[in-house]
């Protein structure tokens, strides 16, 4: 009998790559969507890219409601819980996103564990690790690091991701099933937009080309290619010794100015930013612009992922960040999200 894997939010950037890999490895995939009619778009995109979708089924389930989740997890050997709303605009209330994020994560984990799923792989984020006071100019981000949601500069999204991941870990520990949970914490996720559904990270690449960044802020995060991120998710289902672990998904770190330089060399005809925004100006702009406010705590800090242990546990060696950047740009151009004319 073919093993069945639930992939929540299957139409998303990371989730669609996970689904494609699972199908390619012979798994049956059940993907959750909020609307099956609209969800058919990802089935068509997967098929167009070469995936055999005969073992892919869609079910309707929304993280904000209980309906559908019991059916979704039924008979699934593994659960890939990847769905997670990303706000287009950060609310001023730092706790505003917490109830929905925490409740959604708990719905999935409780139903999955209750249904007997062998392992749940939950996508978190490095933002649940980096948000700490006193980081200095160079922070080595480690598996045991946790953001402090009570740290005042932290904004709504990292607060919600941190509290949601904490809640899930507290739950599995209280049920003595910690080994049945693994979380994956990616940095910036670039790589190919194969299914024309690129996530929030790809907006950075697009913004550099389209003039959204006349100057670039002095921020630096570890980068992971979506294909490597997907590989880590899949290996985490069956690899020994990953149960109860937090797996950082990140290759090397680049400043945003480094990303602009890489793209400028690859596309000399494009008008890419050359100036770095002074740190003080970023902080002032953050007072008036919620999208900038979210990066203010990270200005001037070079965040580096201590992720060698992930390669040892999973066998996945992430490709260099430069390759992920170029793959993202190439696909965005091919998908006509960027116009070089």
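-> sequence recovered:
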């Amino acid at each position: 009998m073919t093993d069945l894997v639930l992939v929540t939010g299957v139409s998303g950037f990371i989730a669609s790559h996970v689904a494609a890999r699972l199908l390619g490895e012979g798994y049956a995939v059940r993907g959750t969507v909020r609307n099956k009619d609209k969800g058919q778009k990802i089935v068509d995109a997967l098929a167009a890219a070469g995936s055999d979708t005969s073992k892919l089924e869609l079910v309707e389930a929304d993280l904000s409601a209980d309906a559908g989740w019991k059916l979704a997890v039924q008979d699934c050997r593994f659960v890939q819980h990847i769905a997670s709303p990303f706000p287009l605009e950060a609310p001023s209330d730092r706790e505003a996103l917490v109830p929905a994020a925490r409740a959604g994560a708990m719905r999935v984990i409780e139903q999955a564990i209750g249904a007997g799923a062998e392992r749940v792989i939950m996508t978190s984020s490095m933002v649940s690790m980096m948000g700490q006071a006193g980081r200095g100019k160079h922070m080595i981000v480690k598996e045991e690091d946790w953001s402090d949601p009570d740290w005042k500069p932290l904004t709504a999204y990292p607060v919600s991701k941190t509290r949601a991941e904490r809640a899930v870990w507290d739950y599995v520990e209280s049920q003595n099933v910690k080994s049945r949970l693994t979380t994956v914490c990616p940095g910036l996720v670039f790589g190919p937009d194969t299914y024309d559904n690129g996530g929030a990270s790809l907006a950075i690449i697009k913004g550099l080309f389209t003039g959204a960044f006349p100057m670039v802020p002095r921020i630096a995060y570890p980068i992971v290619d979506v294909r490597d991120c997907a590989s880590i998710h899949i290996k985490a289902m069956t690899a020994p010794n990953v149960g109860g672990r937090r797996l950082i998904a990140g290759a090397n770190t680049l400043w945003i100015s480094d990303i602009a330089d890489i793209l400028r060399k690859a596309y000399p005809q494009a008008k890419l930013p050359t100036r770095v925004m002074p740190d003080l100006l970023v902080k002032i702009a953050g007072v008036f612009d919620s999208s900038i406010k979210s990066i203010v705590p990270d200005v001037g800090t070079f965040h580096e992922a201590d992720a060698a242990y992930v390669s040892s546990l999973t066998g996945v060696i992430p490709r260099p960040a430069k390759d992920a950047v170029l793959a993202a740009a190439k696909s965005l151009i091919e998908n006509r999200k960027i116009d070089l004319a």
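DSSP finds 13 helices and 14 strands in the chain.
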